[in-house]
Write a structure and sequence with these properties.
It is found in: Cell envelope. Its main location: other. With about 850 residues, this protein is α/β, with parallel strands linked by helices. It contains 22 helices and 26 strands. The strands form ten sheets. The protein has a six-stranded mixed beta sheet. It has a three-stranded parallel beta sheet with strand order 9-10-11, with no helix packed on it. Strands 12-13-14 form a three-stranded antiparallel beta sheet.
Length: about 850
């Protein structure tokens, strides 16, 4: 965190000064490790085993927060007798289809006649694609199902209740197994376990902070699930000082998922409709009209979004212009897109603030896709590798590509940087903060808002006389933002006001609870509703924390409803009393609200303000009315925190440790099942797959490398290695190796090394350091190599792209490539040049038995 998020790390240091214990778990010893109380080296890709060991410790030592778990989780819920765990099926859950590599969720459901999945669950296959397509996307955890009145056992003794299943599932994750799998000494593991349990419970809380790299595995979503299970058991969700912090930074990653740049999401985490399964608005909303919890208002969120986009053209008679909405026809993630570019060619591509030729897994594949387009639009601060690959890319040097054969027409538009434009950033705690423009952008550089507004305006003008129905969505699009005075720059606050939403009278809305399903309200993102309440830019507030309470509600604005801790109703017990005064946050005051009772807090209570703790929903209640007064997790249809997920995850209702797809290590926990069986494999040109442990040729790639950031550089490097003063601080691409590996391979500090996989080979300066610790994994020594991923061929400081080494194998839930643990070889000296590099890599492929057109192994 100190390395990649140094500004946010100041709060960790504040906590340490107040007595907090800081533990850093990472393959490398970093700046964070140096300031932590304990650094725990771990094998890259083994975190579920580590977290699973902590869960097992909590359960076997009876260290869980008993009252919290019984009251606020689904621990007592009984699972149907058809369910079989990985303990029963040698690393698989019930319902797995080996040929399709997908799970049927039917056997995972709660016991009870009302808890069967409907005919169309979230796992149906799309007839237009080889792979299953999510019905419900990232919102699928609630899609088309119910957990109404399941059978429970409040004693937690029933063999099929979630609590007992959890105990059995994690029973093999012992400290000794953690040592075998992760390389963490038993005494170090127990030290972490004691620190965590002693700082959790009624009087204390503990938090997890993770960087984006925790998600970049084929089991990345399950990493977060494991941490969530652990935090629920310890009572660390919804309480001050607890939680799981997904570290987000300058790039506004949080904002880019709220107002999404993801293909399968609409603003506010609404799923992108599926063309085959959701042809009209009613089929899109599905059973959510009868859903319990706040997803029961999904029609209001969706209709308000459609009204924001198409205004008067969105009417009840035309399904509020639902037909205008783009829809999924298959997999449209970045990997599928690049494969279509490689295999089919043609079409166009926009790259905005992204440099896939350097910054994305399998750079060689990325560049091959770019070279097969009709046109490419690049907006960036400088000429990045993805814009001039056609003349300077590595494949030009090797002879794989010739400039004169590349037909891609590249349009490069200079972009304004973050101090040259105004707008919001959204950070880790969901806090929107308005950035005021400091200086004018130079020359022809313009903001993204300027670019897209004027692009849309020109397209609408060109099509103004069209009678083709396919042009109506664009022509009817609301596109009437005012300009900044005396300029042609659209007013960013007007866009924020549209996102906030307006009511029937045209006035700004104050809360998403005001949204209606009848088309009388418009809102560009329901979770952001209130950011422009009363016509005031709430994100621009900057009242000092010294002038307000500890929650500081008047510094920026947090979604939803300016709430700073999600699910904070869980900070009080079922009767509405704080679990402890030391950790008091929200409480029920029976005298507040004119004597009718009300939830009170320095924060905005994450609960209906006047719903009493003893409220019991009437039969047949839907939406928020179906959530009881002692059910704090209001976005879940049962109001509970899920230790076990009966739906919504493509690879299991519980996390399980699987090896990275290319691992030199066997899976000690499930010996018959190495990699995630449901992972998304995308075989094809440029995406060669290496053998894993036990396969012929696996010993050709005996080491593991992991990629990471440096403080001195930023993501793919365009903003940093083009600057002399940052390049001077980190002047060359390097690899970190232990002294033991250096001796084994003849590597010299400051000299050169070549790192090779089945995709490519790169060279790096050698940094011999004890920051990389050799680990004992199941009786053998495993060496890990550290590679920062910032370098490319352009700029003041240049070097080979580390991501050229990576394959494209994906998490089945969110299609993120696994980039943090891949097998490799390392040899002393510089890599070959020109066509000799291809011959060098091909020799490795021959030795390892890698085929140029990889198949799909089972």
């Amino acid at each position: 965190m100190a390395e990649a998020h140094p500004v946010g790390f100041q709060w960790v240091m504040e906590a340490k000064r107040r007595g907090a214990t800081i533990i850093h778990v990472d393959p490398r010893f970093t700046r964070t490790s140096a300031l932590a109380d304990l650094h725990v080296p771990i094998r890259a890709g083994s975190d579920i085993a580590f977290l699973g060991g902590l869960i097992n410790h909590v359960l076997t030592t009876d260290s869980y927060f008993h009252e919290y778990v019984r009251a606020y989780t689904n621990a007592s819920t009984i699972i149907g007798e058809e369910f079989l765990d990985t303990e029963d099926l040698a690393g698989l859950f019930s319902g797995f289809d080996i040929e399709d590599r997908t799970y049927d969720f039917e056997s995972w459901q709660y016991e009870g006649h009302e808890n069967d999945l409907p005919d169309e669950s979230g796992s149906g296959a799309d007839e237009s694609d080889d792979e299953p397509t999510e019905v419900g996307g990232a919102a699928g955890a609630r899609a088309s199902a119910t957990t109404t009145d399941p059978n429970t056992d409040e004693t937690l003794q029933h063999p099929r209740c979630v609590f007992q299943i959890l105990k059995r599932h994690f029973s093999r994750y012992t400290p000794e197994m953690v040592e075998r799998t992760c390389g963490i000494a038993t005494e170090d593991f127990l030290r972490v376990a004691r620190a965590l349990t002693e700082n959790s419970g009624r009087e204390r809380t503990a938090a997890f902070c993770y960087a984006v790299g925790w998600t970049q595995h084929t089991v990345g979503v399950q990493y977060i699930r494991t941490a969530a299970i652990l935090q629920l058991l310890l009572g660390n969700i919804g309480r001050p000082g607890g939680g799981i912090m997904a570290l987000r930074g300058h790039a506004s990653i949080q904002g880019s998922t709220d107002i999404p740049t993801l293909y399968d999401l609409l603003p506010g985490y609404l799923p992108t409709p599926n063309a085959h399964h959701q042809p009209d608005l009613d089929s899109y909303i599905g059973t959510d009209d009868e859903a319990q919890g706040f997803w029961g208002h999904m029609r209001s969120y969706t209709v308000s979004l459609l009204k924001a986009w198409w205004g008067d053209a969105a009417t009840p008679e035309n399904d509020f212009a639902y037909d205008y909405m783009p829809k999924l026809t298959g997999k449209h993630d970045s990997t599928a897109t690049v494969q279509r570019q490689v295999n089919e060619g043609g079409g166009g591509y926009f790259l905005v603030g992204e440099n896939p030729a350097v910054g994305t897994a399998n750079g060689r594949m990325q560049r091959a896709g770019l070279a097969n387009l009709d046109w490419l639009v690049v907006r960036d601060l400088v000429m990045i590798e993805s814009a001039d690959f056609w003349k300077n890319g590595p494949e030009i040097e090797t002879g794989e590509m010739r400039t004169e054969d590349i037909g891609t027409e590249v349009f490069f538009f200079p972009a304004a940087n973050h101090v040259e434009k105004k707008g919001t950033f959204t950070n880790t705690q969901r806090l929107l903060q308005w950035r005021h423009q400091a200086v004018e952008p130079p020359g022809d550089a313009r903001s993204e808002l300027w670019f897209y507004y004027h692009l849309g305006r020109r397209l609408k003008e060109k099509l103004a006389d069209s009678t083709d129905p396919r042009d109506r969505p664009l022509l009817d699009l609301t596109w009437d933002y005012p300009m900044e005075h005396g300029t042609d720059e659209p007013d960013a606050e007007a866009v924020l006001a549209e996102i906030n939403g307006r009511g029937p009278d045209g006035e700004p809305l104050s809360a998403f609870t005001q949204l209606k399903p009848d088309g009388s309200t418009a809102c560009g993102c329901w979770i952001y509703c209130g950011v422009y309440a009363d016509g005031v830019n709430q994100a621009a507030r900057r009242r000092s924390r010294h002038e307000q309470g500890p929650v500081a509600p008047e510094w920026g604005w947090a979604w939803p409803a300016n709430r700073r801790i999600l699910y904070n109703r869980a900070s009080a017990d079922p009767e509405g009393r704080p679990w402890s005064e030391r950790k008091a946050y929200v409480r029920w005051d029976p005298e507040a609200g004119d004597g009718a009772g009300r939830w009170v807090s320095d924060d905005v209570p994450d609960f209906e303000a006047d719903k009493s703790p003893d409220y019991i929903p009437p039969d047949g209640a839907v939406g928020p009315e179906a959530i009881g007064g002692a059910q704090p997790f209001i976005m879940q249809d049962d109001g509970m925190g899920w230790l076990y997920a009966p739906r919504g995850l493509a690879d299991g209702p519980l996390p399980a440790h699987y090896e990275p797809p290319e691992s030199p290590v066997a899976n000690p926990i499930y010996p018959d099942r190495d990699a995630n069986p449901a992972r998304s494999i995308r075989p094809g040109r440029y995406n060669e797959t290496q053998p894993s442990h036990g396969d012929p040729g696996a010993d050709v790639f005996p080491f593991v490398f992991t990629t990471y950031r440096l403080t001195e550089h930023h993501t793919a490097g365009a903003m940093s290695r083009t600057l002399p003063y940052l390049s001077e601080l980190q002047p060359e691409f390097f690899c970190e190796v232990s002294p033991e590996l250096a001796r084994e391979r003849g590597l010299v500090n400051g000299g050169w090394a070549t790192i090779v996989t089945a995709r490519s080979a790169i060279e790096a300066r050698v940094l011999v350091t004890r920051r990389m610790t050799p680990l004992q994994i199941d009786g053998r020594t495993l060496h890990q190599i550290g590679l920062p991923y910032h370098w490319g061929g352009n700029g003041v400081s240049i070097g080979d792209p580390a991501n050229d080494l990576l394959p494209q194998q994906l998490d089945p839930n969110v299609s993120i490539p696994a980039t943090k643990a891949t097998s490799c070889d390392i040899v002393a000296g510089r890599r070959p040049r020109g066509p000799a590099l291809l011959e060098f890599v091909e020799e490795y492929r021959r030795r390892a038995g890698v085929t140029p057109e990889p198949g799909t192994e089972s």
